[in-house]
Each structure stands twice: as C-alpha cells, then as structure tokens.
From TrEMBL:
The keyword Nucleotide-binding applies. This is ATP-dependent DNA helicase RecG. GO terms for biological process: DNA recombination; DNA repair. Residues 453-617 form the Helicase C-terminal domain. It comes from Alicyclobacillus tolerans. Residues 273-434 form the Helicase ATP-binding domain.
Length: 681
C-alpha cells in the first residue's frame, strides 16, 4: 500500500524536500499522489497582437542586444531590447532579477511572462523561461499549480509527482470493482491520477475528477451504510414507553427559561420516534447557539424515564465537561444519574463508573472517544447521542451504537445543510431543525474592517473588556500547517499583550498539549482570562455567555461556514455582542464571504451562500465547514455522483454473498483498515 511508502522512496526526494513535504502534510507516496493541483494555468504562448495594453502576457522573444544593468534605490533593473514573435521590437525589463544578466545572451529565444505596456513598448517581466524549459503546448494549456511553500515550489512538486507516477504505476491499486467502472464508464485509478496532475484536455480532467469523486463517495457510503444495513437486519426498533409527563417535568427543570418553538417541536418529534416501533435515526440541526443541548437532554431524559440508558459523545473533553455541568443543573434534579468518562478520568474512578454503568446505576454517560473503548459496557443502552457528529469517523459512531441492541440515534449538528445534501450524506434519516435562537438574544453585530483599521478594532475590544466582558481574538488560518498557524498565534499573542495591556490575555493553539489547552480553556470559562488569542481550535461548541466580542484576523482566509461557527461563540448571553472581521479580500469570492457575514447571521442562508461560493479551486476554508471532508469530491457540485455512489454501495451491501466474493477482497481490506485507523471513511 502506497500509504506505507515514505516519500523518500521517490527518486530525487532528499532530506530537505522530505521535510518540506512533511510541512505540507505529505509524508507518504499515497498523499503525494493525491496532492492535487488547486488550479491549472494556461501557459500557452500567444502572439503579442492578441493582447491589449496592460495585459499579463506570455510571449516568445529573441534577445536583441546585450542586457544592461542599473541600480536604483538599492533595487536592480535589468533591461534588454527584444524582438517579440521574431518581428516586433520592444524592451524587456526585469526588476530585482540581476542574476539573469549572465544568462540572457544576445540571439537567445526565451519565453517571457509579464505585464505589457503598449505606450512604452515594454514588458515588465515576472517570469523567464529558457528554451530547454519550454513546455509542450498540450502541457502548457493546463499547467498544474500546487499548494506549495517557500521550501518547495509548485513546479518541484509537479516533478516529484510525475516521478512517483512513473515509479509506482504498478502499485496503484484500483479499489473500484471493474463492473462498476464499466457501468459508469469510469477511467482506472492510474489514468485518473495521471490526468489530474497533467490533463491534456478539459474533458480528460473532468473524467478523472468524476472517477475520483465516485471512488471517494463510494468508499464513504460503504462505510456509512454497513452499520445501517446491519441495523436494519437486526430488526426494527423498540417501542420505548415514555410517560407523557416528561414535557412538563423537563420544562420545570429549566428554572423559568422558556423553550423556543423550534426546541419544542424537535422534542415532540423525538418523543414520537421513541414511541414508534421504528428505530430512531434523527439529525438535529440547529444554528449555532440555538440550544440543541437542551433538546438532546430532553431525549436523554425521556429515554431514562422509559427505563433505558443513554450515551452522549462530544468531540472534546471541554465540551463533555460542559455537558456534565449543564446536565447536573438540568437533569440531576429530575432524578437522572449522570457520569462523565474521558481520557483523563483516573483509573480508579473509571473502574467505579464502569461498575455503576454495568449495574444500571448510571443513566446518562457523557464523554468523549473514551466511551468507545471495549470495556465500556452498558446494562441497557437505548439511545446514543453524538454531538457535532461529523467530527467522528463513521466507524466510531457505529462502535458506540453497537454497545446496545437496536439503539436509537440522535445526531446533533450545527451545520445547517440543505435537506438533499443531508440525505445524500447520511442516507435515510429524519431531520429536526431549530431555526430560531432563544428569546432575549440580540443578533451579533458584525463589522468588516480593513487590516489598516486594526487600531479601531482593538479599541472596540478594549471597550468590551472594560465592561468586564471577555474577548476571543482569532489568529489567521494557515491551511494544513499547524506549525505555521501556531507561530502566527504566538506573534499575535505577543502583540495583544501590549494592545490589551492591563488585561489578562492568554493563548490557545493546536501545538499545545491537550492538558495545557484544557487548563487555558477552563480559566477562560471561569472568567480568569479576559482575552483569548486562539487558532480555530476554539471553534466547537464552547459556551461562554460572558464573551461578547470576537476579533478575527485575516478573515478573508476562512470559509463562510467556519466564520459563522466562530462567530457563534459570541452572542450567547443577553448582552449585545460584536464580531469584527479584519481583512483585505484578494478577490470577489472572498469579498462576498465577508459581505455575507456582515449581512446576515442566519446559518441557513449562510450555508446556502457557502455552497454557492465554494467553487472548484478554492481550498482554503473548506476545512471544518461541517461537511465530511473529501479530497476530490465537492458536495456542492457532485451531489449527483454522491447519490449514485450511495445507491451502488447499498446494492452491494444488500447482496450479502456478492459482497463476499474474492473480487471485493481489496475493498473489504480497505474498509477494515479504515476502521482500525479511525479514518473518516
Ligand atoms: N430556550 C432557551 N432559553 C434561554 N437560553 C437557552 C435556551 N436554550 C438554550 N439556552 C442556552 O443557550 C446557550 C446555547 O445553547 P447550546 O450550547 O445548547 O447551543 P448549541 O445549539 O449547542 O450551539 P452550538 O452549536 O453553537 O454549540 C446555552 O447557554 C443554553 O443554556
């Protein structure tokens, strides 16, 4: 398996480049081969006549005299007369590229890329290519551009990928059954990879893309549906006899707060599900801060009253603890016995909890991944709730479910995705939606400021802190490099210490130990820290009502859904809250994202806009958008492929014997390995 072959096995990759690739998250050959271009440039050479004044041109020129070098304010200017297209006299100018002087010989034919000034008949050159580097025209039509870094350039990455493709061609395994490939006319995996990295035509690229998206979705669906098909075979659900006074009793425990209509409707739907003989698989969608936790607690309470146990899994310890505090307040008074199990639960305590659980003396077990371990055994598990479930692998969800028989399932999700999409991703499930926020909340006032207006933003933060409130300061996103991201958080933190002198400032990033992060988060929750400089690690579910302002640096780098999630950390109490987006968007799409954020805080509108804006080629901001992450497939664009993949996966799994045939050995093995590695699909 190429996942196990380190990049050092590719001819030409030495220690320095290995390190550079590792920083881009590429460690093995499989990752290198799926490091796809995010853009293809048209590098074909055109005649000068086809361009207008001010255009970026790519032309062929003959050096028509010896280049002259001069210096101006410490910068070099190299100038040479040229003949463009063997006929048009002009000048070429290179700024700060004096090293080219020796290489540019009179009479030499080179390709220049740069800006054309008609008036001065001059090309300001940004890129020079010598004869031997000239691309063949079919290669130049769609020249791949890769995510790269200072240590490794895009053309270098391209060369390594080509080398790896040649060297490992025989080891590129095709997981898709031949029959499927034929039915849907899908090219084989090797061809697809080849075409992604060096497409000769648009159509070739389209076919490669279609094939890889199909594969990705198909594997995802197989994994997802294995559990569903099994659950169906097991039988339908169990009727849970929930007494009808649960609504009243639960409302009493809320100490005067009124449930929103959306919360109440969702509770009704859950109540009906539990009563029906059909197993419940329900997705509870609610915008950030809409109060999903209470609804989940209601479900837990109802189930407990019917005589069953409940497991609720959160993606982080902090969140699980937050649930515990809230459950103590809301559920313990109703007689629900609650316990918490996480990775940092001590051995003795853990043993006690497990004993109580097996004896049915714990009704609701809250926790993290720690709930998945084998020795966690319930006496009578009836309901599994997973919070922010997209963060768990499909296999992990299945594991928890299997700890009970015919368990009901409730997923909580803060990403409002359109229904068609939900169906395609999760298959058959029911969806409850909470649209409104609790009464008394004010919408978060959102401002977009240019980075030159940082002072103003900092003043606003200070103003809130002076009132005794707390602030989140979000450091720029650095895609796929936790290290760089941490560095940027550290330097922002240093700045903030002087900007916010007199206040207690702290910092949170992905390179700290879990323990360190926890301690910091805890003191923020307790109000001991007033301003928290952080990378996106704060994003999920944290509930600190006293935090009323968020300042996001380089906001143009984040995706819409992500910005919305981040912003959801403020505006969770009765006080007016603010979100300041600092940023200078480079293009239209980024600008529209920021404008959308200023214009609305309705997560559903934002989700739609997000899908609309996320075009191919945009790679920043996809992370943590809330949808499962796919490398090639784009749910906005390839929804139909997902649907077909879903049907095919279902068919395969239902025809049980079929699935056991030797031809599917590779697939089964892949799924098994994905299981044990806890992969996302
Ligand atoms: N009906 C209500 N009235 C007043 N406050 C409420 C109501 N429902 C929930 N809350 C409070 O609102 C806050 C947000 O609720 P909760 O944490 O459940 O949101 P959420 O939907 O999980 O949001 P996120 O996805 O952002 O984590 C909590 O402090 C909760 O106690």
């Amino acid at each position: 398996m190429l996942e196990k072959v380190p990049v050092t096995h590719v001819a030409g990759i030495g220690p320095a480049k290995t390190k550079a690739l590792a920083e881009l998250g590429i460690h093995d050959v499989a990752a290198l081969l799926t490091h796809f271009p995010y853009r293809y440039d048209d590098l074909r050479i055109r005649p000068l006549l086809s361009y207008a004044d001010g255009d970026r041109v790519r032309v062929q020129v003959t050096i028509n005299g010896s280049p002259k070098l001069r210096w101006q304010n410490g910068k070099s200017i190299l100038q040479a007369p040229v003949l463009v297209d063997f006929q048009t006299p002009a000048y070429a100018m290179w700024f700060n590229q004096h090293y080219l002087q020796k290489r540019l010989r009179e009479g030499e034919v080179v390709i220049l890329q740069g800006k054309w000034s008609e008036r001065y008949r001059r090309i300001a050159v940004s890129h020079t290519e010598f004869g031997n580097q000239r691309l063949r025209s079919e290669e130049a039509a769609m020249y791949p551009v890769y995510r790269s870094s200072k240590q490794i350039s895009s053309p270098q990455i391209a060369a390594f990928i080509q080398q790896a493709l040649a060297q490992f061609q025989d080891q590129i395994v095709d997981l898709l059954p031949l029959e499927l490939r034929q039915r849907y006319k899908l090219v084989n995996r090797y061809e697809a990879l080849l075409a992604m990295h060096r497409p000769r035509t648009r159509e070739e690229l389209r076919q490669a893309h279609r094939r890889l998206a199909f594969e990705e979705f198909f594997l995802f669906q197989l994994q997802l549906q294995r559990y569903r098909v099994q659950a169906k075979l097991q039988s339908d659900g169990v009727v849970r006899h929930v007494p009808s006074d649960v609504f009243e009793k639960f409302a009493d425990a809320l100490e005067g707060f009124t449930l929103t209509d959306g919360q109440y409707d969702a509770m009704q739907e859950i109540y009906h599900d539990l009563h029906s003989p059909r197993a419940m698989t329900r997705l509870l969608q609610g915008d950030v801060g809409s109060g999903k936790t209470w609804v989940a607690f209601f479900a837990a309470y109802a189930m407990v009253r019917a005589g069953w146990q409940v497991a609720m899994m959160a993606p982080t310890e902090i969140l699980a603890e937050q649930h515990l505090l809230e459950a103590r307040k809301r559920l313990e008074p109703l007689g629900v016995r609650v316990a918490l199990l996480t990775g940092s639960t001590g051995i003795r305590e853990r043993r006690e909890i497990l004993a109580l659980l097996a004896a049915h003396q714990v009704d609701l077990l809250l926790g993290t991944h720690a709930l998945l371990t084998e020795d966690v055994e319930f006496a009578r598990l009836g309901l599994v709730i997973t919070d922010e479930q997209h963060r768990f692998g499909v296999a992990q969800r299945g594991t928890l479910q299997e700890k009970g028989e015919r368990t009901d399932i409730l997923y909580l999700s803060a990403t409002p995705i359109p229904r068609t999409l939900a169906l395609a991703i999760y298959g058959d499930l029911d969806v409850s939606v909470i649209r409104e926020r609790p009464k008394g909340r004010q919408p978060v006032r959102t401002y977009w400021l240019r980075s030159s207006e940082e002072d103003k933003a900092v003043r606003m933060v200070r103003r809130e802190l002076a009132k005794g409130r707390q602030a989140y300061i979000v450091a720029p996103l650095v895609e796929d490099s936790e290290k760089l991201e941490a560095t940027s958080a550290v330097s922002l933190y240093e700045q903030m210490q002087s900007h916010l002198a007199g206040y207690r400032v702290s910092m949170l990033h992905g390179r700290q130990s879990a323990k360190e992060k926890d301690a910091i988060m805890r003191s923020f929750i307790a109000g001991e820290i007033q301003a928290l400089v952080s990378t996106t690690v704060i994003e999920v579910g944290i509930d600190v009502p006293n935090a009323t302002i968020m300042l996001i640096y380089h906001a143009q780098r984040f995706g819409l859904a992500q910005l919305h999630q981040l912003r959801g950390r403020v505006g969770r109490g009765a006080n007016a809250s603010f979100c300041i987006l600092l940023g200078d968007p480079p293009g239209d799409v980024a600008k529209q994202r920021l404008e959308t954020m200023v214009g609305t805080d309705d997560g559903f509108l934002i989700a739609e806009k997000d899908l609309e804006l996320r075009g191919p080629g945009e790679f920043l901001g996809v992370r943590q958008s809330g949808l499962p992450e796919f490398t090639v497939g784009d749910l906005a664009r390839d929804l139909n492929i997902m649907q077909v993949a879903r049907d095919e996966a279902e068919k395969l799994l239902q025809e049980n014997e079929f699935w056991l045939l030797p031809v599917y050995e590779g697939l089964r093995k892949h799924l098994f390995e994905a299981d044990s590695a806890g992969l996302k699909y």
